[in-house]
Amino acid sequence: MEYRLLGRSGFKVPVLTLGTGTFAGKGDFFSAWGDTDVKGAARLIDICLDAGLTMFDSADIYSGGGAEEVLGGAIKGRRDKVLISTKFTFRSGEGPNDVGSSRFHILKSMDAALKRLGTDYIDLLQLHGFDAQTPHEEVLSTLDALIKAGKLRYIGVSNFSGWHLMKALSVSERYGYARYVAHQAYYSLIGRDYEWELMPLAVDQGVGAVVWSPLGWGRLTGKIRRGTPLPKESRLHATADYGPQVEDEYLYKVVDALDEVAKETGKSVPQIALNWLLQRPSVSTVVIGARNEEQLRANLGAVGWNLTPDQITKLDAASERPKIYPYWHQVQFKERNPFPV
Fold first, then answer.
1. Which of 29, 96, 193, 304 has its CA 20 to 30 A from that of 273?
2. pTM beyond 0.90
3. Residue 54 and residue 92 in contact, taking contact as beta carbons nearer than 8 Å
4. Which CATH architecture has domain 3-330?
């Protein structure tokens, strides 16, 4: 397993991270993802550790905290062998302060997460979304204090706009607070918006991408093709409306290219989609999911080899989308806009 630095930090993370959205399975939404219990999670973690995958990502909203509880139970007695990443910002209670990134909610959420995970520190905490009502100074001073108290190692964000992240980084620089070194963002062969502004920002500012939903919200599993009905077991039946929307013809065009590369490499469609991401600028780690051992082992097969430049070009061309303004204008001037786009 390859390890990479997380952004402009000295923290090394495996290029694959196991997401825990499939743990616990509480509620209609998360039960469609999976319902792995502590015993099942412990087995998946065994396989991960054997492969060198040591990082596990969760969030307080996954099954209402149930995923963190399952993860905590599964790593009991081997906390020193794993890296824990989790997230909070979304509503966690009925009170007016049980949402967002206020000092009140961060501290309350932090204590609850530590209890569920059965640990006294978190390796990487990411704010799950932007809170426009709380000043960056309040957010970052609180996170900085938690780092100094030993409860956090590194901090990041998720689902921020470019200006959200850049403004936060400027506040860290101004006051000497710990800075965000990670951005957990949606990025896939059928969702390349990340490249327009967030990737150049990440390259320039040293923010590592922690990629979520790398298989396009379950669309790049290799089971969806022209003339083929959606598999009965697909979580898209229950969750498609909550995630990124993709036109059928565009999806089929990308899958056609993936199928061509699959024939050339002998690899599966998901393995190729994951490997493509691992060769993109700014990507530090890709979060994979697995309902069972078979899916996990298959996803682990995405590392240890690389697509050729010609194969990458083929996938790039099939998945290219027209850019919105001002990005379509900026890309015409490479000599003064050299960032990857």
1. 29
2. yes
3. no
4. Alpha-Beta Barrel (3.20)
